Automatic annotation (TrEMBL):
Principal subcellular localization: membrane
Quaternary organization: The cytochrome bc1 complex is composed of a cytochrome b (QcrB), the Rieske iron-sulfur protein (QcrA) and a diheme cytochrome c (QcrC) subunit.
Compartment annotation: Cell membrane
Record-listed E.C. numbers: 7.1.1.8
Iron among keywords: yes
Recorded topology in the membrane: Multi-pass membrane protein
Name assigned to this protein: Cytochrome bc1 complex cytochrome c subunit
Catalytic activity from the UniProt record: a quinol + 2 Fe(III)-[cytochrome c](out) = a quinone + 2 Fe(II)-[cytochrome c](out) + 2 H(+)(out)
Superkingdom, taxonomy of origin: Bacteria
Maturation and modification: Binds 2 heme c groups covalently per subunit.
InterPro entries for the chain: bc1_cytC-su, Cyt_c-like_dom, Cyt_c-like_dom_sf, Cytochrome_c_Oxidase_Subunit
């Protein structure tokens, strides 16, 4: 007992006790930690990637290469991220029906579960933008006025003032944004598909993207009434100016001709 008491008074006794307590705590955590859940999650993710690889080999590898490295018929997919896959496949643009200046939106071939599997496989090839969460792209609570300002500054040059789309060079075009899902609009800004530049968070923050989506949702909503009257397709001042020039000037010419005709008739009589 005297020896034990002496050891308790030793300067290193507290350190030894602390180390023993930490070792016991670590052992108990290792024994009872939910390792099976972590392994199950890893196993599920691996299975998702494997299923995505199978879908890729059937529907995508002929153009993008067996390992996503790209070919002369399709660009490399290494590093494009899950968001690019979710956008391209989720809007029906991919798999492409035929080559051309631009791949248009068409009927979606894969269901959402298969799209998620493809996205997981492509994401495994290299880091890239991930699929946004609903909180990121939902227009609820966003600043519509700020979104309109950002859209007119960064997007209206191609998509026109209310997102009606427009023609570009060499057979390319900016698509109409009416009816496009908010998630796909967010992903398009993230990844810059086809002719569109990308707008990462360093250029347009997540909040800025959300504001733009809210603006488009507002101007293209069936419940929104155009305060200016006839919108002329929502194409902006060019179409409105052309309308004013043709019809306004036409009315003035018609009035001038009518006045001249009446004057000539009055002189004859």
């Amino acid at each position: 007992m005297k020896k034990l008491s002496a050891r308790r008074r030793h300067p290193l006794a507290a350190v030894v006790v602390l180390l023993l307590a930490l070792a016991a705590t670590g052992g108990l955590y290792t024994a009872f930690a939910p390792a099976s859940k972590a392994k199950a999650d890893d196993s599920a993710q691996s299975l998702t990637i494997e299923e995505g690889k199978k879908l890729y080999e059937v529907g995508c590898a002929s153009c993008h290469g067996a390992g996503g490295q790209g070919t002369t018929d399709g660009p490399s997919l290494v590093g494009v991220g899950a968001a690019a896959v979710d956008f391209q496949v989720g809007t029906g643009r991919m798999p492409a029906q035929q080559p051309g200046a631009q791949i248009p939106r068409k009927k979606v071939i894969y269901n959402q579960a298969e799209i998620d599997q493809l996205a997981a496989y492509i994401a495994s090839l290299g880091a890239g933008p991930s699929v946004p969460t609903k909180n990121q792209y939902s227009p609820e609570g966003a600043d519509i006025a700020k979104g309109g300002e950002l859209f007119r500054t960064n997007c209206a040059q191609c998509h026109n003032f209310t997102g009606k789309g427009g023609a570009l060079t060499h057979g390319k075009f900016a698509p109409d944004l009416e009816g496009v899902q908010p998630k796909h609009i967010y992903e398009a800004m993230q990844t810059g598909p086809q002719n569109m530049p990308s707008f990462p968070d360093t250029t347009l923050s997540s909040k800025n993207k959300k504001d733009i989506i809210a603006y488009l949702h507002s101007v293209n909503s069936d419940q929104t009434k155009n305060p200016g009257g006839l919108e002329l397709g929502g194409l902006g001042p060019v179409s409105e100016g052309l309308f004013g020039w043709i019809f306004g000037l036409g009315v003035l010419i018609a009035v001038a001709v009518w006045v001249a005709a009446r004057t000539a008739k009055a002189k004859k009589s």
